[in-house]
Design brief:
The protein has three helices and two strands; from the N terminus they run H-H-E-E-H. The radius of gyration is 45 Å and the shape is flat. The longest helix has 28 residues. Strands 1-2 form a two-stranded antiparallel ribbon. The chain is mainly alpha-helical and about 170 residues long.
Length: about 170
């Protein structure tokens, strides 16, 4: 067996690594423990949210309670909501009530096929024709005998579109 010899460079590296890890662990633990707590961060964020919420409410109230121009060139002004009710209620009381929109959308009528069958094609079974239908052409097979084949059926008309979904009636 061969003995491993430690040179001074290898020895310093081993001792330095052990010493470094020994000192690094307490330092990292100290940083983790002494840092800001998650609860403190959430409390600060909640305070900031309430502050922003209060500022927005104050700005909205200021806009709602004061008159001012929205667009001066177009002649559009902003007035308080109470004043708008004072101006509009007499007009609404004097006008005749109008019917509202229907609660259920009307159902579309089923689509009727608008195309005429091709000449020589058989008519659909439910169609009425003014005169007799022409006989189907008969083809001869390669042996010379005539076959009595069935006429080709007419193409089926397109199906009617599905009715539109209806909205549920509002609850009183």
């Amino acid at each position: 067996m061969t003995k491993t010899q430690f040179t001074p460079g290898k020895l310093y590296l081993i001792v330095g690594s052990i010493l470094g890890l020994t000192l690094l662990f307490p330092f990292a633990s100290f940083l983790l423990v002494s840092g800001p707590k998650a609860d403190d961060i959430e409390i600060e964020r909640a305070k900031n949210r309430w502050k922003v919420h209060a500022e927005l409410n104050e700005a909205d109230k200021k806009l709602a309670d004061n008159t001012g121009w929205v667009d001066e060139k177009a002649g559009i002004v902003r007035i308080p909501l109470a004043r708008a009710f004072e101006l509009e209620l007499p007009l609404l009381a004097a006008s005749k009530p109008r019917p509202g929109a229907p609660l259920v959308a009307p159902q579309p009528a089923p689509a009727q096929p608008t195309t005429q069958p091709a000449p020589g094609a058989a008519a659909p079974a439910n169609a009425t024709s003014p005169g007799p239908t022409p006989p189907a052409p008969q083809s001869q097979s390669s042996s010379g005998a005539q076959s009595t084949g069935n006429p080709k059926p007419a193409p089926k008309p397109a199906p009617a579109p599905a009715p539109a979904p209806t909205a549920p009636a509002p609850k009183p």
